[in-house]
Design a protein that fits this description.
Elements (H helix, E strand, L loop, with lengths): L2 H4 L4 H4 L2 H22 L8 H13 L4 H19 L1 H20 L9 H21 L7 H12 L3 H20 L1 H23 L4 E7 L3 H11 L5 E10 L2 E16 H14 L4 E6 L6 H7 L2
Antiparallel strand pairs: 1-3, 1-4, 2-3
Helix pairs in contact: 3-6, 3-7, 4-5, 4-9, 5-6, 5-8, 7-10, 8-9, 9-10, 11-12
Main location: membrane
Membrane topology: Multi-pass membrane protein
Subcellular location: Cell membrane
Length: 296
């Protein structure tokens, strides 16, 4: 059974005021980036936006036409893979994008190449991030990457990077190496900004602690920071020069936000200077106390 059958269309979610407002603000930011920074200075981004601006420059077609036409197949792929709600959100985002690109007049903000690369990326990142928070996307590469991920076993990041590398090589060949390098700055700026907009400061991080004073660390995390923990049974030791010396220990794992991790690390280091800690970013959390507290 396909996901589109499992997830019936929820019009209240698709047409909610918050969702529509996020899409409109996000699309407006994207249009400001395209018309105020990118096109006047012949700068490009990665993804379908970069391809659309290339088509606009080569064939002098309104950029909204290739941008929308290139995205439409991915609306269908999104419908088949992620369901009707995702396809509806994305289609509405594309309609807003086409309308605002046609009617919104944006003057050239600056011709300074560095400012164009950075602030063009900032506005694109804001736009993409807000649209994602509104439930849709305006770049089908995310959809095709997720779809190809299951077919070929490559990660979404690997697929997107491979496609964007091809785009940047084309830019370097036709528009020069300098334009390609500035476009890479734009792409990575947009990527980082969209990550912050989507995840916010509540991006979750896994903190793992191995300490000889595990009871002290557990009490600190649970009682002082009010965080749930998971305990794994492990071994300390096996060090160079003393390989045969080892001790049973408890490996403590907790999940915290970006804002909390620094404070917690300092508290743990103060309580036990010998504690070993390492941090991992978490892409997704589902279920349990963490999900209920953060809304993830």
């Amino acid at each position: 059974m396909s996901k589109s059958n499992l997830n019936p269309l929820d019009l209240r979610s698709v047409l909610s005021f918050k969702s529509l407002l996020l899409k409109i603000i996000g699309v407006s930011c994207t249009v400001i980036a395209i018309k105020g920074f990118m096109i006047p200075n012949l700068f490009l981004d990665g993804g379908l936006l970069g391809i659309s601006i290339l088509i606009h420059e080569f064939y002098h077609i309104d950029v909204s036409i290739p941008l929308i036409l290139l995205n439409l197949p991915f609306v269908y792929i999104g419908y088949k893979k992620f369901g009707k709600n995702f396809a509806a959100h994305t289609f509405i985002s594309l309609v807003f994008l086409g309308l605002l690109l046609s009617v919104l007049t944006v003057p050239t903000v600056t011709q300074d190449h560095f400012l164009v690369a950075v602030f063009g990326g900032v506005f694109i990142g804001l736009g993409i991030g807000l649209i994602i928070r509104g439930g849709g996307v305006i770049d089908g590469l995310e959809v095709i990457a997720a779809y190809t991920n299951t077919k070929f076993g490559l990660t979404t990041t690997e697929i997107i990077m491979a496609i964007n590398t091809t785009i940047f090589l084309i830019i370097a060949f036709f528009l020069g190496l300098e334009k390609a390098m500035y476009s890479i700055i734009t792409f990575f700026t947009a990527l980082k900004i969209s990550d912050y907009v989507v995840d916010g400061f509540e991006k979750l991080i896994s903190l793992t602690i191995i300490s000889p004073n595990d009871q002290l660390i557990k009490e600190l995390i649970v009682n002082q920071f009010n965080k749930p923990i998971t305990i794994y049974k492990g071994e300390r030791g096996n060090l160079p020069g003393s390989y045969d010396i080892k001790h049973d220990c408890e490996v403590i794992v907790t999940v915290v936000t970006r804002l909390e991790v620094h404070k917690m690390r300092k508290a743990i280091a103060k309580a036990d200077p010998k504690a070993f800690m390492f941090i991992q970013n978490i892409n997704e959390v589902d279920g349990g106390l963490i999900s209920r507290k953060t809304g993830h």
